[in-house]
Amino acid sequence: PRLANQIAAGEVVERPASVVKELVENSLDAGATRIELDVERGGHKRIRLRDNGSGIVKDELELALSRHATSKIATLDDLEQILSLGFRGEALASISAVSRLTLTSKPATQEQAWQASCEGRDMAVTLQPAAHPDGTTIDVADIFYNTPARRKFLRTEKTEYQHIEDVIKRIALSRPDVTFILRHNDKVTKRYAATGTDQLAVRVGQVCGKAFIEQAIHTRCDYESIQLEAWLGNAEQLRSSNDCQYSFVNGRGMRDKLILHALRQAYESVLAVAEQPAFVVYLTINPKEVDVNVHPAKHEVRFQQSRLVHDFICKTVCDALSSWAD
Ligand code: ADP
Ligand code: MG
């Protein structure tokens, strides 16, 4: 099973940032409202996440570390309308196959916290009592220590850390109601205090910076079952903030080609600029008209009426940019 897990890990665990993504999504699935992440040496050394979510009961700790153990699919009906972010049940098993993983958790209903760790060649899980507040801590140390071929592909600590930061930014933009605290080598590097869900602008400002939010063009438009809310960088911001490009479809971060294309076309036609604009775009659409599970790891979506969605985005952005250019 260990080899199978290591192979599966290749799909889930590409680099430290992919570990972070899986762990944070699990915390959100568990209803956490506060997520703290401690990273050492770009994640090469350690990634530790602590949340205040629902926790894992003692009897399920071992199961949580085994493959295809997901508490998130009860019936086929669930599968068809996947509401939670995770549904494959192999992230933790995959991560533990390529790192030294410790899982400590305390559900509010349980008096004692318990800690599970995988050890030895057979990855036997050992359980011991621990001290921990309500919630979960997952400690992932020495990533790829046992898969040297993969370890070689790790980039510099700085680069890996930037990928981690980007994952956190992306998720933070989709969950303004959750507090995120990010530390690198014991120093707080990002702190996003929870805001109301109706205060998206506050979160966009926290993540993309004061300069961006103060100058960006804000627009909001509805068409039938589609809604778009966006903060669009102006011409001066084109060059400086081209790393700030975030799009979300029904709350999930997506690097979607169609959205990017529609934005580019709008910027090109109104401002005559071919550079990539800075933007934060939220698209809300009837879930029945979009297939998000085309490839969960690649953040791809497929719109049933792709032409319509494209043109709606392009027109909305064009209108916003023109009124600003006037
Ligand atoms: P999946 O998220 O696809 O179900 P994972 O391997 O990511 O699979 O997690 C396995 C299980 O462990 C989850 O289904 C969940 O029950 C539990 N779990 C993982 N992380 C947490 C967490 N932070 N809080 C509560 N439960 C968790
Ligand atoms: Mg998961």
UniProtKB/TrEMBL annotation:
Annotated DNA mismatch repair protein S5 domain residues: 204-322
Span of the signal peptide: none
One GO MF term: endonuclease activity
Keyword annotations: DNA damage, DNA repair, Endonuclease, Hydrolase, Nuclease
Function: This protein is involved in the repair of mismatches in DNA. It is required for dam-dependent methyl-directed DNA mismatch repair. May act as a 'molecular matchmaker', a protein that promotes the formation of a stable complex between two or more DNA-binding proteins in an ATP-dependent manner without itself being part of a final effector complex.
Family: Belongs to the DNA mismatch repair MutL/HexB family.
Protein name listed in UniProt: DNA mismatch repair protein MutL
Organism placement in taxonomy: Bacteria, Pseudomonadati, Pseudomonadota, Gammaproteobacteria, Alteromonadales
Gene expressing this chain: mutL
Full-protein residues shown: 8 to 333 of 594
